[in-house]
Amino acid sequence: MRIAMIGSGYVGLVTGACFSEFGFNVTNVDQDVKKIQDLERGKIPIYEPGLDSLVQHGRAAGRLSFTTDLSGAVNQADIVMIAVGTPTRRGDGYADLSYVYQAAEQIALALNGYTVVVTKSTVPVGTCRKVAKIIEKTRPDLKRGIDFDVASNPEFLREGSAISDFMRPDRIVIGTDSNRAKELLSKLYRPLYLIETPIVFTSIETSELIKYASNGFLAMKIAFINQMADLCEKAGADIQELAKGIGLDGRIGRKFLNVGPGYGGSCFPKDTLALSRTAHDFNSPLTLIDAVVEANDSRKKEMAGKIIAALKGRGDIKGKTISVLGITFKPNTDDLRDAPSLVIVPELLKAGLKVKVYDPLYYAGSERLGYATDLDGVEWSINAYASMQDADCVVILTEWNEFRALDLDRIKTLLNAPQGFKPLMIDLRNIYKPSEMEEIEYVSLGRGKIAA
Ligand SMILES: NC(=O)c1ccc[n+]([C@@H]2O[C@H](COP(=O)([O-])OP(=O)(O)OC[C@H]3O[C@@H](n4cnc5c(N)ncnc54)[C@H](O)[C@@H]3O)[C@@H](O)[C@H]2O)c1
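# nicotinamide-adenine-dinucleotide complex -> structure
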């Protein structure tokens, strides 16, 4: 079976490499010439643990190849997967489907022999049927059900653990009304039957909505725990213990109950917004999701306010320097899309603070700094300690492993503190215990104190 993967970004590249590992022949297509040239040279354009060896393995076995020639790849494929971006459309919050529709037209022109065209991108309900219509309009000679079928097969992998998520998923969702497509896609996922992965076959519309409902629900969990943290702080309770106390209830579950500076990344922000827009269009508003979007937007600004307030509590902030550790929206990815840092750091700069940044993938001399233009105005450091040198406060923004066991004695010597104050650490991921911080003024989230 031959697969053409249209789009070789975070999803297309990982899924293409994983399908080739299953033994299928995969051609990964992208319109970005540099990306394809890099991939052909064995250079992986994104940071995703384990991806380089998987790609190398697929190429060496002759099962994985890269091209900008969409027609050539589609022409020979049994299954074509659309894995292009669906970012927020500028100005109105809807998903921008122009890449999907453009890909659908290009695919239509190259279809040859029965092919299943699958939307793997996260797309609003109705999009997959629109893809079928585009194909029929572009190629009136092709008949749906005879020459091609469409299916929705949303992807649930998480950046940072994408390969194991893909290889050991909680479930596979396939939406199609064609038995032939269902059969072909069942064959594609047969390698996962061995580990008894549940496959949910459903209608196209349900499948499209399952993806948004999943992300909406997870985003809601995050927004919920963040607001509970605010309440804990004021009521003298502890969010860590609260999260454990509720998470042990099997109906709630322990995951996605980590307090933080607000969700970010390439999925939750855009998908919650798009879901909210879809619901309004169907005159069936999801007011819960509307509230989640609003709460998360304000949360990022509130976190900047929290940092500034902590510094102000120690005197004039003019000319003060902040060390920021971590700018990606979560550890183990280089993805900066909609990261909380892109709101928080500019707010700090706006307040007149100097900001020194270190991230394990974005540091002084890192090739990736070209992608961090939203953070123009910061000084990049070579490591965590260099960023703290002579700073007046350190802020942990992303819980990279290397920030979990910082040398606290060394930090005390690096950070400036006004007379009568301890060095200041603001931990927006709660990775330390307050009890470890006797000689540091430690500000974290949702750990309230009751006056004795
Ligand atoms: N990133 C994630 O963690 C994740 C997880 C699950 C689902 N998704 C969804 O998967 C989709 C892709 O996300 P991503 O993060 O991989 O995006 P991405 O921006 O990293 O990659 C998209 C790629 O598609 C290419 N492309 C666009 N139009 C093309 C065309 N006509 N022909 C060939 N290539 C084309 C772009 O050049 C780009 O390399 C989105 O809908 C997203 O919501 C993403």
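# post-check
Residues 244-443 form a domain with the Rossmann fold fold (CATH 3.40.50.720).
The chain has two domains: 2-202, 244-443.
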